[in-house]
Amino acid sequence: MAVTAHRINSRHLPGSYRTAISFTGFRLRKTHSKIGKHNGGQAISSPEERKPFGAYPQDGSEAFTFLRNILPGVGGLLYGAACTYDNTPDEDFIIDTPAGHDNTLLITGLSGHGFKFASVLGEIAAQFAQGIAPQFDLTPFSLSRFSR
């Protein structure tokens, strides 16, 4: 993995640093940071297939290679966890009403990015619940895009 060495302090977190593998970081406390790897991971069909953190040799080691370059003197791993999130084939959201269920709004396939869009997704859902047309063009997020 090619990582450009940057000398930054943890106070610069949250941040997103592009490498061959994408990492995001959040400062939790003065001495703790949360680092996550976003690369698609291993595809699974059910939650039971998820393997625990540490099941793969690269779990942790990729993050530490990255961390040692941007946070000199980084300490040890306090906790590791494997996370799952739903993806769509094009890695974009689905915001649509399923056929035959006009009173149901489906918001899914957020691909690990939904939290960043919580305010606008909530606004869309609230407007839907009130019978108000969305202020945004939701065509790019339709279910039908997968059957074209």
From TrEMBL:
InterPro entries per the UniProt record, alphabetical: FAD-dep_OxRdtase, FAD/NAD-bd_sf, MTOX
Cofactors named for this entry: FAD
Keywords, A to Z? FAD, Flavoprotein, Oxidoreductase
A Pfam family found in this protein is DAO
* Molecular-function annotations in GO: flavin adenine dinucleotide binding; sarcosine oxidase activity
The cellular component terms of Gene Ontology attached to this UniProt record, alphabetical and capped at eight, are:
cytosol
* Keyword check for Ribonucleoprotein: no
Coiled coil residues, start to end: none
The catalytic activity of this protein is classed by the Enzyme Commission as 1.5.3.-
Q: Does the keyword Protein biosynthesis apply?
A: no
Superkingdom, according to UniProt? Bacteria
Residue ranges of domain FAD dependent oxidoreductase in the record: 53-127
What name does UniProt use for this protein? N-methyltryptophan oxidase
Q: Which organism is it from?
A: Enterobacter cloacae
- Which gene holds the coding sequence for this protein? solA_2
